[in-house]
Amino acid sequence: MAVNNPRHLVNLALIGFMGTGKSSVGRLVAEQLHFDYLDTDELIQSRSGRTITDIFDGEGEAVFRKLEQQLVSELAARKRTVIATGGGLPTNPVNLASLKTHALVVCLWASPERIWERVRNQTHRPLLRDPNPKSKIRELLAAREPFYRQADVLINTDLRSAREVTQQIVHQFKLAQSGQQ
Ligand code: S3P
Questions:
Q1: From atom 9 of ligand 1, which residue's Cα is the shortest distance away?
Q2: CA of 67 to the centre of ligand 1 (A)
Q3: Cβ within 8 Å of residue 44, ≥6 positions away
Q4: How far from 179 is each of 2, 41, 45, CA to CA, in Å?
């Protein structure tokens, strides 16, 4: 892991593709660190009173991305918070740069096959309403890989349980924090 630039790591942000376990792992990490837990999708939904699908269908993806960016800019004021982000959020360089000013950015990685297994029975993701969702996953993942790779820590979740992934993240966070002192 390389956290080269001096930063004040008060938060921990989880990025990664849909179905990589950001929400479930995020909750476990927050519990272990005694941090608050925040999910950008949940917050956008509760603030707007609409589901992500409704926003995509009604106003379009661009409006959803604006809401994401607006929310990310507010997160710099948070302390001791685990932030689970929507899968497309770090493809906006402004978002990634902003998160990096206050959070250790951890990416959960998974193969397209594992992602498909995890999301195939779920219906709440507008981007996967595709005649061929498997190839859509492959295509999106390939396009997003360069952004996900900009995380401070990259964890392959394919062969690890949520508990193992959590332990690894907590360890890396403590390591990064101790390196700052
Ligand atoms: C998206 C991922 C979703 C949600 C929206 C768009 C994406 O979040 O933000 O449907 O672009 O990958 P999850 O990664 O939590 O599923």
A1: 86
A2: 13
A3: 52, 55, 64, 67, 68, 71, 86
A4: 11, 31, 36
* Alpha-carbon gap, residue 18 to 146, rounded angstroms: 16
Nearest-CA residue for ligand 1 atom 12 is 87
pTM: 0.95
Give SS3 for 159. coil
Short-list 141, 167, 154, CA closest to 15: 154
How far from 61 is each of 64, 65, 66, 125, 170, CA to CA, in Å? 5, 6, 9, 12, 33
pLDDT in tens, 106-141: 999 999 999 999 999 888 899 989 899 999 999 999
Nearest atom, ligand 1, residue 18 CA: 14
Q: What is the residue whose two structure tokens read 């990589």?
A: 20
Instruction: DSSP letter for 126, please.
Output: G
Distance 128 CA to ligand 1 centre (A): 9
End-to-end CA distance of the chain: 17
Q: Give the start-end residues of each E strand in the chain.
A: 11-16, 36-39, 81-84, 103-109, 153-156
93 contacts 15 by C-beta, under 8 angstroms: no
